[in-house]
Amino acid sequence: EAEMGKLDDDDDAGDEGSMDPELNANDDDDDDAAFYNSIAKKSKHDKQTRKEYYAVAPKFPTVDARVEGERGLSRAILKNRGLVAHKNKLNRNPRVKKREQYRKALIRRKGAVREVRDPREGLVYGGEETGIKSRTTKSRKLS
Fold it and tell me: With contact defined as beta carbons under 8 Å apart, do 46 and 81 qualify?
């Protein structure tokens, strides 16, 4: 509000108290135009103030002086790899990668080669699985 008062004082300094009615009508228009201009100036000033207040500081400061020769490498420049293809998580650890490869190779081999069995496994009699029942007979009488 104080700024608005200052702007009004500056605008009205030249034309005070004319007695002609036609000039008074023009003074009304001039007063309206002056008021509009003062509000417009205040609005622009407020917008500029807000813009400066909320302005984001630049990430990299601008260098005014010219640098002679080659500039030093920063870590960001040194490590700049651009777009890199996505790599599998297993590729990070070679030991785990080889272990997984071996596990998959065993699975593939089981499909191609039969498992080695102990030759005695089929020849040794293990007895009746359910046990021998003395009351059960499964033979025919010949008489």
Answer: no
What span, in angstroms and rounded, lies between the C-alpha atoms of 125 and 132?
Answer: 14
The sign of the torsion formed by the CA atoms of 39, 40, 41, 46 equals positive
Q: What sign does the CA torsion over 126, 128, 132, 137 have? A: negative
pTM of the entire predicted model: 0.30
Give the 3-state secondary structure of residue 122.
coil
> Rounded CA gap, 42 and 50, in Å?
12
pLDDT in tens, the chain (143 residues): 555 555 555 555 445 555 555 656 677 888 899 999 999 999 999 999 999 999 988 777 777 777 678 878 888 888 888 888 888 998 899 999 999 999 999 999 999 998 888 877 777 777 777 888 888 888 888 87
- How many whole angstroms separate alpha carbon 3 and alpha carbon 45? 10
